[in-house]
Write a structure and sequence with these properties.
The structure is a homodimer. In chain A, strands 1, 2, 3, 4, 5, 6, 7, 8, 9, 10 and 11 form an eleven-stranded antiparallel beta sheet that branches. Chain A starts with 8 loop residues before the first strand and ends with a strand. The mean pLDDT of chain A is 95. Chain A is mostly beta strands. In chain A, 42% of the residues are buried. Helices cover 14% and strands 41% of the residues of chain A. In chain A, strand 9 and strand 10 form a beta hairpin. At the A-B interface, helix 1 of A face helix 1 of B.
């Protein structure tokens, strides 16, 4: 297997563990996003930009959202896959990355995602322009306008169901923040096991609006819309009434 | 790196992901046990005993408990480690396995665990004798008496703190049961982030008494005992008053 590892594209081989997969045998959405975070962290380290180097600038990368598609055929635990990422383009405040998961032979693409990042001043807790030394190194183009991610529609009216989730210590990751991939465990769990066992996500979009912090309890609610053979769910995570994340997912029925 | 892969011992190389680690940078207890389950599943598959073959006997392996020790120095995310397992010995109803995690050079052992398994008739939901074709193949000795695992002491009197945990869809694994490694997320979370950030587990014992199933809500409680420099915590998971799991953990303060 030949992996591309350049300044702009970085790929690794990964064997899916059973604990990255649900009882369908396929990876969960939250684990897929965790894997994507892992490969972009590895790309940064490969380019000499480890966490300490990034933190010296006084800031940190923050993801504002993802969108993307999933093949109806997903890999199973034990399978070897390729995880990849590309630094696509950037401007003063935003950087766009793509992520993919393919089979070993790269004949089948299981996942293709885009993510938009901003750079956050950690002391002032607000946006700062991206330090040039953290972005020019990838050789991706500086552009005026970046493509917008798909914006998930808001829940209208009353949600179908709402459940509370207390943030747990094990939701916190090595950056001392709630792992934002974990939001998907809260977002999808209210759909229930019967739905989750019989449906496969094929499209998704998520927008992160406010950080969820430890000691908080989130309320996760959703609505369902059926459109021909497609099922669309809209999701919201709120903390004390304030929307922290919105997501939209398109599902296929598993035959 | 030379890995041993024989009928009795099976080792793999594994790179620790950030989502297998807590904000201390070290693997969580639940992820360590998940990794051990992974390597024993792989050993079974290596010997031609995949899940389908095991299920044809009408039963499944069930772990009754673990005990073991952890080095005060634990590996960090991104590090390559060796995960290993050995089929140690068995009798008509019980099988003993050992598990370890070491550094690449096998100079430092981070984790050493023992686990005792029984074989459960899935229809009758009760113990059955281990089918010979599932155990003789490993070449481990048939013995009269197996060593007993360390038995965690029960909580006496009132617990210090108790928190409820609703079983979530993503706690269910590919075997359609709650991943028993996940019990440790429920067991340890009530200790709180301040404790968990400043203490490293060095010994543990857990006894699984009754299965926790989906749709259940568990109550997780604990007590603390300080003994010189050692801190011992005792833990219990109950469902509607019935104890489902008991655990005992010895901790070192992180300087």
């Amino acid at each position: 297997m030949t992996l591309t590892q350049t300044k702009q594209v970085y790929e690794i081989s990964h064997t899916l563990t059973y604990y990255e997969c649900t009882d369908t045998g396929h990876p969960s959405m939250s684990m897929l996003l965790s894997m994507m975070t892992m490969v972009s962290d590895m790309h940064l380290e490969f380019m000499g930009l480890d966490t300490a180097t990034v933190h010296k600038t006084g800031g940190a990368w923050v993801v504002t959202g993802y969108d993307g598609t999933f093949s109806p055929t997903q890999p199973v635990y034990g399978q070897q896959v390729v995880l990849g990422t590309k630094a696509v383009a950037y401007n003063r405040f935003f950087a766009l990355r793509e992520f993919w998961m393919t089979d070993r032979e790269r004949k089948h693409e299981y996942v293709h995602l885009r993510a938009l990042f901003v750079f956050m001043n950690l002391k002032k807790r607000r946006l700062m322009s991206i330090p040039p030394q953290l972005i020019e190194i990838f050789g991706s183009p500086l552009v005026k306008r970046l493509p917008r991610l798909h914006q998930p529609a808001a829940i209208e009216g009353r949600a179908l169901r709402e459940l509370p989730y207390r943030v747990r210590y094990f939701d916190i990751d090595v950056n001392h923040h709630v792992n934002n991939a974990r939001y998907f465990d809260w977002l999808l769990d209210p759909l229930g096991s019967r739905f989750l066992r019989t449906h496969q996500f094929v499209k998704m979009a998520i927008k992160y609006l406010h950080e969820v912090r430890e000691t908080m309890t989130v309320a996760s609610s959703y609505q369902v819309q059926e459109k021909d053979t497609e099922i669309i769910t809209r999701h919201e995570i709120r903390v004390e009434g304030r929307v922290c994340a919105q997501a939209e997912i398109v599902w296929n029925k598993i035959k």
